[in-house]
Write a structure and sequence with these properties.
Layout lengths: L2 H10 L12 H4 L13 E4 L5 H7 L4 E12 L2 E10 L10 H5 L2 E5 L5 E5 L8 H5 L7 H14 L3 H18 L6
Antiparallel strand pairs: 1-3, 2-3, 4-5
Helix pairs in contact: 1-3
The protein binds iron/sulfur cluster (2 copies).
Length: 178
């Protein structure tokens, strides 16, 4: 199946399902879309194959570049692209990482996929700092679980999750998971 099409379908799960039923951006002034004073410094990793969405849509508010993060799949070392925006976007085209923030997928030592509060969000997002995942909009959490359960069926995605989870583990040493 066309990868861009899969992501575009998954995106729809988060058009109306956000962390809270109200606009959480009012709590923090949209902190997750700001990054200091540099207009080009906001970045989020794209998941395997997601870059094809932006090749298809070619939005002018996003730049996609190679990052310094790599994962290995099928014996091949693959780069994880990073998407850079200047703090505004078409919300119906925003990347998956933005849609699920402040949650993220994580595969623990037991090999099981979980959706956790992103430890990188704890110092930035008031929801991540103060709320348990179970207190979020249930539809939002459920759709994140459904999304990554589906993506994990793809071998390359599962391989990516191994390296991505190791990367997150470094942050989890300093910020508790929940
Ligand atoms: S930083 Fe957290 S509370 Fe603020 S807009 Fe982003 S997800 Fe919502
Ligand atoms: S792409 Fe949109 S939602 Fe994501 S960080 Fe940029 S402005 Fe925020």
């Amino acid at each position: 199946m066309n990868t861009a099409y899969v992501y575009l379908q998954l995106y729809k799960l988060f058009d109306d399902n956000t962390p809270l039923k109200t606009d959480c951006g009012r709590l923090c002034g949209g902190a997750c879309c700001k990054d200091g004073d540099s207009p080009d410094s906001m970045g989020m990793y794209l998941f395997p194959g997601e870059k094809k969405v932006f090749e298809l849509l070619s939005p002018d508010w996003i730049k996609i570049e190679p990052s310094d993060f790599y994962y290995t799949s099928g014996g091949v070392r693959r780069n994880v692209p990073i998407a850079l925006c200047s703090g505004s976007c078409d919300r119906y085209q925003r990347p998956l990482a933005c849609r699920i923030f402040p949650l993220t997928p994580y595969v623990g030592n037991d090999g099981k996929l979980r959706i956790i509060t992103d430890p990188r969000a704890k110092s930035l997002c008031p929801l991540a700092a103060a709320m348990h995942k179970d207190e979020y909009n249930h539809g939002f959490v459920r759709n994140a679980e459904r999304t990554f359960s589906l993506l994990m069926k793809n071998r390359r995605f599962a391989d990516f999750m191994q390296d991505y989870s190791e990367y997150l583990s470094e942050y989890l040493k300093f910020f508790s998971e929940e």
